[in-house]
Specification:
globular, 179 residues
Length: 179
């Protein structure tokens, strides 16, 4: 297993958004080694748009997977099976990621050492130093401390040590039956 990053992007009918999402992921300052795209049986132009968006990402290996079973949990399990790196970022197909997204997650992993197994992001709207943004950060921190056994980040912002995610059972309907 290499020491870098793999990004997994499951998608279903995201032709309006996936191009911008993939361009933002291909522009990361900390370059992913691999992007795994999991088509969850789209019936629009998502696949073609994704191909176009990554056509110039020559230094990133792109892996295409198809998961015909409906539901994001199946697409995530399929994508995780193609991860061969120490770190994995699970990204939504309709989210624009800042260019320092992976770099910021890597800093948290590095600072915390091997006991940090996941880094979760919370969406903060601009202006990032405004009152609303500060209140959202405070709420996220407080709820996370009070309900520590639960996840408080949207699906757009999950980064893991791959071994820890797999050891915990990865993604599966037995863990996540409501999806």
């Amino acid at each position: 297993m290499d020491t870098g990053w793999t990004i997994v992007v499951p998608f279903f009918n995201e032709e309006r958004f996936i191009g911008a999402t993939l361009r933002s992921l291909a522009a990361q300052t900390l370059r992913p080694r691999r992007i795994v795209l999991v088509d969850n049986a789209s019936n629009d132009a998502s696949v073609a748009v994704a191909h176009d968006a990554l056509a110039s990402a020559f230094d990133v290996e792109v892996v295409w997977q198809h998961e015909p079973r409906p539901g994001q949990v199946h697409a995530l399990a399929c994508g995780l099976s193609a991860v061969n790196s120490a770190f994995v970022a699970i990204c939504d197909a309709d989210t624009i990621y800042p260019p320092h997204y992976l770099q910021a997650a890597q800093r948290v992993f590095d600072r915390g050492g091997p006991v940090v197994v996941a880094v979760l992001a919370a969406g903060i709207a601009a202006p990032v130093h405004g009152l609303r943004a500060r209140l959202k950060r405070l709420k996220t921190l407080l709820v996370g401390r009070l309900l520590a056994a639960q996840c408080h980040a949207g699906g757009y912002g999950h980064c893991f040590r791959t071994v820890a995610l797999r050891d915990a059972g990865g993604y599966g309907a037995h863990h996540w039956p409501f999806v």
